[in-house]
Design a protein that fits this description.
The longest helix has 11 residues, at 223-233. The two termini are 13 Å apart. The chain has helices spanning 88-92, 135-140, 223-233, 259-266, 285-289; strands at residues 4-6, 9-11, 23-25, 45-56, 62-72, 77-83, 99-101, 106-108, 117-119, 123-125, 128-130, 142-147, 152-156, 167-179, 202-206, 212-217, 237-240, 249-250, 277-283. The radius of gyration is 19 Å and the shape is globular. Helix content is 12%, strand content 35%. It has one domain. Strand 15 and strand 16 (212-217) form a beta hairpin. It has 5 helices and 19 strands. It has 292 residues and is mainly beta.
Length: 292
């Protein structure tokens, strides 16, 4: 894989591309060094696994938002469907991956395909396409997409046939907390107008600079506090997959899944944590072919 720099920790796995950093630090950007050589490939992911921000609520009170963050350049980001019930241990050691994280919700349907689930949203990823098994849910929810040109988009509804040529990544079945780029249609049925539970949350955020930020919040964050944080950060859109007890945010070799993590995510009930698939973030093939 590539040299990894997360916060103050640097790890250089062996391999021919060890000099090509796929992960950088979001808190300490590297200095620019002038050189006659061609530029190095862009950083795909910048991670801060101990981020915190002071956030002001609408009533004037403040709180500290604690979270793990991974910021991606969508031009060089590939997402893969990583299938398998409870395969977090393999994810912990996957040297090809930058991050494993939670995808859209699903419902159990024993005997349906290999995983026995029906997705609540369509998926178009680097390793294939998976159509939703619950068509009503897919049509009523929101999506995040990356265009063929590497631009991030947040919209609503299902993956349409004509969009397959426009998008190379599509994650449907999501819930829109904020979208300043597009008004929600009447067909959209979100849950966050009424949800107030204080849970661990996985967040898909569109930044003003066009990059994608994936976040795992600390426990105890209410949705109104999340809105205040999003407004302060200036996100253009914030979507959530909406199954807090199944939150996954694994940086292989660095931020690992463990029984302790499972207990924290589930509030102590391990029976609700099993997950049949995760989304795997890795550099695109074009990134690997870029000059060192």
């Amino acid at each position: 894989m590539a040299a990894v720099s997360v916060g103050c920790t640097a790890i250089a796995p062996p391999g021919p591309q060890a000099s090509m950093p796929a992960i950088g630090s979001s808190s300490r950007p590297e200095p620019v060094i002038e050189s006659d050589l061609p530029p190095s490939p862009p950083v795909v992911m910048r991670a801060d696994l101990a981020a915190h921000q002071r956030v002001m609520r609408a009533d004037g009170s403040e709180f500290t938002m604690r979270y793990s963050s991974a910021v991606f350049d969508p031009r060089w980001l590939d997402l893969q469907f990583s299938a398998g019930w409870e395969h977090e241990e393999q994810a912990n050691a996957d040297t090809e991956a930058l991050l494993f994280f939670t995808g859209p919700t699903y419902e159990r349907q024993p005997g349906r395909h290999e995983l026995g689930i029906a997705l609540h949203g369509d998926l178009l990823l680097g390793n294939g396409e998976w159509r939703a098994g619950n068509n009503a849910a897919a049509a009523q929810r929101a999506y995040l997409a990356i265009t063929s040109a590497g631009e991030l988009e947040f919209g609503y509804g299902r993956l349409l046939p004509e969009q397959r040529h426009h998008y190379r990544i599509f994650i449907g079945g999501l819930h829109a907390l904020i979208n300043t780029t597009q008004a929600a249609p009447e067909t959209y049925k979100g849950v966050y107008s009424r949800l107030s539970l204080a849970d661990v949350r996985i967040i898909y955020a569109g930044r003003a600079d066009g990059q994608l930020e994936l976040i795992e919040t600390a426990d105890g964050l209410h949705v109104d506090d999340l809105r205040a944080f999003a407004a302060q950060q200036g996100y253009v859109a914030v979507y959530l997959p909406d199954h807090a007890s199944k939150s996954r945010f694994i940086v292989p070799g660095i931020k690992l899944w463990s029984e302790q993590q499972a207990l924290w995510v589930s509030g102590g009930d391990l029976s609700i944590t099993p997950l049949p698939f995760m989304l795997k973030a890795q550099p695109t093939s074009a990134w690997f072919s870029a000059p060192p």
